Amino acid sequence: MASSLPLVVSLNCIEDTSFEVEALAGVASVEHVGLSHLADGRIETAVAVLLHSLAFLPRAAQRRLQPWQLILCLGSSDRAVDSALAADLGLRLVHVDVNRAEEIADTIMALFLALLRRTNLLSQYSSSSSAASGWFGSIQPLCRGMRRCRGLVLGIIGRSASARCLATRSLAFRMSVLYFDVNENNYVKGKGRFQQSSITFPPAARKMDTLNDLLAASDLISLHCALSDEPIQILDAECLQHIKPGAFIVNTSNSQLIDDYALKQLLIDGTIAGCALDGAEGPQWMEAWVREMPNVLILPRSADYSEEVWMEIREKAISMLQAFFLDSVIPNNDISDEGEENSGIAYEGDQVENRELRTSQSKESKVSGLPQNTVTRSDRRHSRSSKKAKKRRARQSSQQKSHDFSGVDGSYSSQQEDDTAISGMEQSSRFASPDDSKSKQICHLESNMESSSRKPETMSEGLNRKCVELLKDGFVIALHTRERTGFHVSRQRVPGGGWFLDTFSNVTKRDPAVQFLVSFKSKDVLGLRSFAAGGKLLQINRRMEFVFASYNFDVWESWMLEGSLLEDCRLVNCRNPLVVLDVCIEIVAVVDEEDGVARWLG
Question: Where does this protein have compositionally biased stretches of type Basic residues (predicted)?
Answer without folding.
Answer: 379-395
